[in-house]
Amino acid sequence: MTRLWRFLGSTGLAVVLLLVVLLAALVGTLFPQLTPDVAADPAAAARWLTTAQEKYGFRFGLYRALGLFDVYHSPWFLALVAALLLNTVVCTVDRLRIVWRAVRARPKIERAEAFYERMPNHVSLAVASVEQGEQALRQVLGRRRYHVVAERRGGVTYLFAERNRLARLATLLTHTSLVLLVLGFLWSSWGGWRERAVALGPGQVHSVGHGRSFAVRSDGLEIDRYPSGQPSDYRAYLTVLERGTEVMRKTVRVNDPLTYRGVSFYLYSYGPAGRVRATDVEGQPIPLQAESNQGVASGEVTLNFAGEGDGREVVVPSRDLTLRLVFYYQGPSLFVQATRSGETKSFGAGSVRGGDSLKVGDITFEFALDRYIVLQVVHDPGFKGVILAGFLIVGGLIFSFYFPHKRLWARVTADELWLAGRTERDAVGFEKEFVGLMEGLKKGLEAGFW
Question: I want to staple 181 with a disulfide (CB 3.0 to 4.6 A). Which of 9, 23, 241, 389 is the partner?
């Protein structure tokens, strides 16, 4: 078990796993990937697989069996990530015991003269007395924010000084953040989902689904424009409905989503929309059905257009009547054609603008022009963990490289002062600092300040 534990936490294993994961990620960039939103739509997934089969021919079956079209969700890739995660956890646990013991341990202050001579940074200075040398060291080191501990034995004073002692824990912080980062990605991969294009006209409601009981409603869109007419800002008004009851409202802008119970609604874009209302000769609403609707709306439907020249159809089931509407930016306006079911020849046509009405037989159609919004609906449970891990990684690196642990030892006798030091990182910077300490001590001792 000891050998197994050492193997799982070895640096060599970590290097190999990192290389293999990077190679697997490279494979994921070389082969087209079946995205979750396409996989969730059986028709779209079937079309995607048909295209891939035409591209790769007889190799398609092998590539699919190996999971090359969905690398990041394949069992072998998840096994590699799990192994890398286990390696990082074991390495962190091992380092935790060693580093924590080193942080809490009492430093050895008394050192023999040979110790100072072996250190890469050391100096020997003449002093008039033990008290003069000790006071000089405390003054110089204190100005540089070193924590100083002293012991006196047999007429000799020994000093130990250090800075950034807790910086040793930075490596543990970095290792822990890597664990959080991998866990966050795995959590998002397994438990997250995304709907990339949810179009909502004014008043339309989108049920979130995915086991959630709430929905979101669009309450309109406002656009600010430059003097040239180009949009400068646009914002949507959203309302969250929980079993038909309004529970939250927010004005949503780009990169400023509405978030409710772990689901975020991002404003992605907008487009032209038209509303159609139908009444009979007595002014009673007539049921309508739009091609995008699952059911029949009582009296009014909303149509979302992709842009100029895009057409949509409205069916009047009780009259065996179909209206085809085509959107044009000029005006803006709608070109309307009325046909009977099963017939191609139009028996009524015309252009209308917002607020206009059109009578076809005994039905009066009223038209309004508006805008719909396009939302991205995202549930990413690991997002906060990934962000936290990113901050921890940056913090660990900053402490490791900009606040290295520095240690100094001194031995002061009645006529001589020995000073030596070392650091875990930034040896060049510490060497310059040590020269500065030495020069400060020399000037003070020569001037007799102590």
Answer: 389
Residue after which a domain boundary falls, among 210, 242, 270:
270
Average pLDDT over residues 403-432: 90
Residue 386 lies in a domain: no
Task: Give the Cα separation of 449 and 427 in Å (integer).
Answer: 30
Number of CB atoms found within 10 A of residue 396's CB:
21
Rg (CA), the chain: 37
DSSP character string of 110-141: ---HHHHHHSSEEEEEE-S-HHHHHHHHHHHH
β-pair type (300-304, 263-279): antiparallel
- Both 342 and 354 in one domain: the answer is yes
Tokens 């009780």 correspond to 318
pLDDT tens per residue across span 108-132? 899 988 999 899 899 999 988 898 8
Residue 48 Cα distances to 30, 315, 353, angstroms: 16, 32, 40
**Length reported for the chain:** 450
Q: Are 21 and 96 members of one domain? A: yes
- The Cα–Cα gap between 183 and 392 comes to 14
In Å, the largest CA–CA distance within the chain is 118
- Check whether 274 has a pLDDT greater than 80: yes
What is the pLDDT of the chain when averaged over all its residues? 86
Determine contact, residues 245/259, Cβ cutoff 8 Å.
Answer: no
The answer to whether residues 213 and 262 belong to one domain is yes
Most confident segment among 83-92, 156-165, 226-235, 314-323: 156-165
Sheet holding 348-352, edge to edge: 297-298, 287-290, 311-316, 321-328, 333-340, 348-352
The pLDDT tens digits for 168-204 are 778 778 878 888 888 887 788 778 888 878 888 888 8
pLDDT value at residue 37: 67
Q: In the chain, how many domains are there?
A: 4
For CA atoms 419, 420, 424, 427, the dihedral sign is positive
Residue 371 and residue 271 in contact, taking contact as beta carbons nearer than 8 Å: yes
pLDDT tops 50 at residue 76: yes
Note whether 339 and 426 are same-domain residues: no
Ramachandran category for residue 401: left, alpha or beta (phi over 0 → left; psi -120 to 50 → alpha)? alpha
* 42, pLDDT greater than 90: no
Look-up of token digits 């002293």: 150
User: 56 and 31 share a domain?
Assistant: yes
In a domain, 177, yes or no: no
Q: Considering the domain boundaries, does residue 349 fall inside one?
A: yes
Pair 364, 279 in one domain: yes
Residue 75 has pLDDT above 80, yes or no: yes
Residue-range definition of the domain harbouring residue 205: 192-270
Q: Are residues 125 and 155 in the same domain?
A: yes
